[in-house]
Amino acid sequence: xxxxxxxxxxxxxxxxxxxxxxxxxxxxxxxxxxxxxxxxxxxxxxxxxxxxxxxxxxxxxxxxxxxxxxxxxxxxxxxxxxxxxxxxxxxxxxxxxxxxxxxxxxxxxxxxxxxxxxxxxxxxxxxxxxxxxxxxxxxxxxxxxxxxxxxxxxxxx
Length: 157
Description:
Layout: H1 9-24, E1 32-34, E2 43-45, E3 52-54, H2 56-62, H3 64-83, H4 92-101, E4 120-124, E5 130-133, E6 151-156
Parallel strand pairs: 1-3
Antiparallel strand pairs: 2-3, 4-5, 4-6
Helix pairs in contact: 1-3, 2-3, 3-4
């Protein structure tokens, strides 16, 4: 087993093939890659192409053991789907195989947040009603729902 982190898609593919043969006794015959757009998940299985994608930020942050658990998880989806068995998280086949091979059930958080998670607070000038929103409100177009008063920006959380 490899003790160092894969730094390229080729090294990742070698690791995935090794884990597939050792833990599942089945070959992995498709592609896998790092996807830098993944933010909240450790990896994903693509149904149409049968490819696997992994979050490089999770690998850098949590190390090789987390990557191996995520690879096992995604390989459970892969092999069960190709065998025509239940490959979704809710299926008993998936849950049984995941437990058998010791795959990760959930990905550890990476700390990467969505840009839109900042909340903006608006206040009615007349009645003092507060509105907390993720999206920016055009205060010249929108008014208070309670008294139709003018809204003004108060704070960004």
